[in-house]
Amino acid sequence: MNCMLISCRCQFLELMMKDLRVWTGNVGTEHTGSHLETTCLNLVDRKKARAFGAFEVKSESAKRQTQQKKAGEAKVKELQIDHVFIETVIFATEANLFGNGAPKHIKKGAAAKFERGDRAISEYYDNEHSQICNPETKLNKEALRGRSIGVERSRAYFDHFFVAGEADETQRGEKEVKLTTIDPLMSEADKNSEKELERATTTDTRILEKFYTVQELKNESRALSDILDELEEYDEVRDPPSLRDQRKSDWCYYLKILRQDILRMDSLWESRTRDSILNDMNDRGRENDTNLKQALRDELKDPFFTLDRNEKAKQKVYSFAAAEEDNEFDNGSELQQEEEHDTNATRIVDRARESFGVSAMDISFTL
Amino acid sequence: MILEIHRKRGSLFAGSHLEDVFSSWRATEGQLKWVMNPGDPRQINSELIMYMLALYVVAQRALVSMGRTEISAADVVNHINERAKDHPIVKCFVDEMRYAEIIFMLQEAEKKSDAQMFISALKLAIPLFAASHATKYVNMATSFLVDWHCMSEADKILFAEFIFTRKTAHGYSVFSDCFVGNYFVPYDVVDVRNLKY
Questions:
Q1: Nearest-angstrom CA–CA distance, A321 and A335
Q2: SS3 at position A342
Q3: Is B189 found in the same domain as B107?
Q4: Do B84 and B50 fall within a single domain?
Q5: Residue B51 has what pLDDT?
Q6: Residue A191 pLDDT more than 60?
Q7: Cβ of B53 and A85 within 8 Å?
Q8: What would the pLDDT profile of A330-339 be if each residue is shown by its tens digit?
Q9: Is A111 in Cβ contact with B126 (below 8 Å)?
Q10: pLDDT-wise least confident of A115-119, A192-196, B76-80
């Protein structure tokens, strides 16, 4: 029985390779990879067109569209799936955009360059807002409120120029209503604030060394030393590093000792310093981490995002076989959909990775 | 209008995630610029459809992998929104997907010659223009909406039936202002230019 199955599988494989070679040829070129992907994804349609003629297939599709039109259904245009679709599916899946758990930073580039699972760099931490492929590049949190900022600005524009202003006024400067582009990347001021927030109260010498220059360390130490000297109960004597021995690490250690002292003497110093930096950030209208989630929730209440849909009962519901794990679904658990072409489309997506060719496991099995 | 939305969408979201995704199949800066800042909407149209479809499919698959067996389009949208509440990067995707939907709405409005759909899409697009320094488009769109509000019912019908779109020789509807482009030139400008004096 097993031999028969293996034999059938071998035959199927051979036939499939034969079909693929009809469209991709035997000689590899620069574009063979993407050509092969597209051919694999649309193999069934192409074979059908080859067997029955493209005209027949098209007329069949046209007939279906006419039926849909008669039945009052929305017209559906059939498109062939291409490499853009499959690359995006792989990117979004590997970055875990919509799955369980935090999204992941992944390496940039075509999926074919990477083995499955080798692409992930790290997971996003809570409230992190940085590029997917470059965790070091922080993004502007103001951009997350882009929609509401746009709505506020357009209202202000309307009020200023159409309600209060002259309708015929052709000169419309931006002094009155700001329409500047929201930069997707974090601004320099924000970067500095983030950096300041991280370095301002820490006693970790690694962070001090990373975020301070020697001159900044000297200034910070001097300022802190002055604050400590003013405290009556402080009687420690901390000498700064000698002039001969002015290595950065020595200044970091000196600042660390001073900070430990001030944290011991004044328990509110840390919270006071952080609050002052956060206030500076808020004064510039930036979101800080503490209210970022709330801002996101408020923004997403807009009907622009919710689509204001209370008509679920009227929506078409698709039934899927439950998958206990992702892998089980990937390995081809059957989908039971209402329409045949939907089933085909979803199945193609599910087996997208495998349909680049035959996976290593299958080859070893058939050999 | 559609071109400007493509461009502004590119300028707002290229840095956050679009370049990362599109660099999976576009390897150079020039190739990315071709779609992030297109000179013609057709440069990005086909890729945008596949890109959007893929994102919805991934969200749908995520729901299935969580054990959901009965799924509607509303569930998929809700699921994406729920993820966006907790993860800022997903919120960027949601924003950008909505603006892509506006482009689809405008294309649909053109195809169906549906003035009401065009007005709805325009209302949704103005905040994008206002957040991305499209000063002329903010002005133009706001003025047009004011005009639309002031139009009589008869004017609205005239606009929808005779001004909003025009029919090509093959029976397709196209925006009236596009009718001078290469695509529709044979019936307008080229005929005039070919006149021999």
A1: 6
A2: helix
A3: no
A4: yes
A5: 93
A6: yes
A7: yes
A8: 444 444 444 4
A9: no
A10: A192-196
- Residues in chain A within 8 Å Cβ distance of B62: 98-100
Residues B136, B109, single domain; the answer is yes
Is A98 in contact with B62 (Cβ distance < 8 A)?
A: yes
Task: Say whether both B70 and B13 belong to one domain.
Answer: yes
pLDDT tens digits along B151-168: 999 999 998 888 888 887
H helices of chain B, in order, are: 2-13, 19-22, 29-36, 42-65, 73-86, 88-112, 115-130, 135-150, 153-158, 189-193
Domain count, chain B: 2
Contact A97 B21 (CB under 8 A): no
**CB distance A195 to A211 below 8 Å:** yes
Domain that holds residue B190: 165-197
pLDDT per residue over A215-239, tens digit each? 788 888 888 888 888 777 777 777 7
Segment of A257-271, A291-305, B104-118 carrying the highest mean pLDDT: B104-118
State how far residue B187 is from chain A, nearest Cα, in angstroms.
Answer: 27
AA letter at A47:
K
Please check whether residues B65 and B125 belong to one and the same domain.
yes
Looking at residue B44, what DSSP letter applies? H
Among chain B residues, the shortest Cα distance to A31 is held by B25
- A-B C-beta contacts closer than 8 Å: 236
A chain contacts of residue B112, beta-carbon cutoff 8 Å: none
ipTM over 0.90: no
- The domain ranges of chain A are 188-299, 312-367
Token representation of residue A367: 């050999």
pLDDT band at A323 (very low <50, low <70, confident <90, very high): low
Q: What pLDDT is recorded for position B180?
A: 59
State whether B19 and B61 are in the same domain.
yes
Query: Could you give the CA distance from residue A220 to residue A273 in angstroms, rounded to a whole number?
Result: 13
CB contact under 8 A, B88 and A141: yes
